[in-house]
C-alpha cells in the first residue's frame, strides 16, 4: 500500500497540468463538458446560366454562320469554307468628277452578316475577290439586265462576275478564309476570298441615280 501511494504521489507531481485526473487509477473527470462546434455549411455561388450562342456555328447544310466561322477559327483559318449570311454592305467607289484626278478606288468588296439588319461592323465578314474593279461589275449587271450576260465556261479558269450581289440578299459563299487576301485586303478576324456562291434569297436592287448635269 505504501508503494502504491508513493507511485500516485509521484504521478501527481509530474503531471500538474492534468487537472482532469481526480485520483490515481481513475479516468477523465465525469464533469468535463466537451462542446461540439457547429457544422460548417460552405457557401458556394450558384452555377451561372450561360446565354445561348447568338447563331448556330453551322447550319443543317454544314455551311458556317459568320459567328461560327470565327468561333472555329482555330480550324477554319487558312482553309476553304462555306459560309451563309446576308449582304449587309457593298463597297461602291465614289464617282470621280469630270476633270478631277481621284485616288484609285479599292477593288470591289462587300460585307455579310448573320442578320439582314446587322449594323455592327464587328459582326460583319468581308468578302473579296469577285471582281477586279467596279467597271467589270457595272458592265456585267448591265448586260444581265438586258439578258445578254454570258458567264465564262467553267473549264476556262475565269471566274464569272456576280450580278446578284445586292444588299439584303441571303447568300451561301464558298471561298478561302484567311486574314490576308491575294489582292492585299487585311482583316485580323479573317475574310473570305470568293470562289463561288449561291443566292438563297434575293436582295433589294439599288434605286437608280439621276445623271449629274455638268454646267
Question: Could you characterize what this model shows?
Answer:
The structure is a single chain. Helix content is 16%, strand content 22%. The protein has four helices and five strands, in the order αααβββαββ. Strand 4 and strand 5 form a beta hairpin. The model is unreliable at 210-215 (pLDDT under 50).
List keywords for this structure.
16% helix; single chain; alpha+beta; five-stranded mixed beta barrel; disordered C terminus; 215 residues
Report the end-to-end length measured between terminal Cα atoms.
Answer: 139 Å
Q: Percent of residues in beta strands?
A: 15-25%
- Biggest beta sheet summary: 5 strands, mixed, barrel
Oligomer: single chain
Sequence stretches where pLDDT stays below 50 over 5 or more residues: 210-215
Q: How are the strands of the largest sheet arranged? A: 1-2-3-5-4
Number of strands: 5
Order of helices and strands, N to C?
A: HHHEEEHEE
Radius of gyration: 40 Å
- The level of helicity is 10-25%
Overall outline: elongated
Mean pLDDT: 84
| Main structural class | alpha+beta
Helical region count?
Answer: 4
Blueprint of the fold:
Layout: H1 2-14, H2 66-71, H3 73-76, E1 79-90, E2 109-113, E3 125-128, H4 134-145, E4 170-180, E5 186-201
Short description:
Helices cover 16% and strands 22% of the residues. It is of the alpha+beta class.
Amino acid at each position: 500500500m505504501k508503494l502504491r501511494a508513493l507511485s500516485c504521489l509521484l504521478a501527481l507531481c509530474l503531471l500538474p497540468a492534468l487537472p482532469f485526473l481526480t485520483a490515481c487509477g481513475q479516468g477523465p473527470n465525469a464533469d468535463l463538458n466537451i462542446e461540439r462546434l457547429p457544422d460548417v455549411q460552405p457557401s458556394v455561388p450558384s452555377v451561372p446560366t450561360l446565354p445561348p450562342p447568338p447563331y448556330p456555328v453551322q447550319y443543317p447544310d454544314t455551311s458556317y454562320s459568320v459567328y461560327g466561322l470565327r468561333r472555329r477559327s482555330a480550324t477554319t483559318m487558312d482553309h476553304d469554307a462555306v459560309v451563309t449570311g446576308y449582304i449587309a454592305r457593298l463597297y461602291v467607289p465614289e464617282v470621280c468628277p469630270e476633270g478631277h484626278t481621284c485616288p484609285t478606288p479599292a477593288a470591289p468588296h462587300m460585307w455579310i452578316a448573320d442578320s439582314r439588319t446587322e449594323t455592327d461592323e464587328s459582326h460583319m465578314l468581308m468578302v473579296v475577290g469577285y471582281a477586279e474593279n467596279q467597271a467589270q461589275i457595272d458592265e456585267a449587271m448591265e448586260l444581265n439586265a438586258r439578258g445578254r450576260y454570258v458567264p465564262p465556261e467553267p473549264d476556262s479558269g475565269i471566274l464569272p462576275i456576280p450580278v446578284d450581289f445586292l444588299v439584303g440578299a441571303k447568300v451561301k459563299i464558298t471561298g478561302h478564309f484567311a486574314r490576308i487576301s491575294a489582292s492585299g485586303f487585311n482583316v485580323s478576324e479573317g475574310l473570305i476570298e470568293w470562289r463561288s456562291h449561291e443566292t438563297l434569297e434575293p436582295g433589294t436592287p439599288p434605286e437608280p441615280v439621276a445623271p449629274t448635269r455638268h454646267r
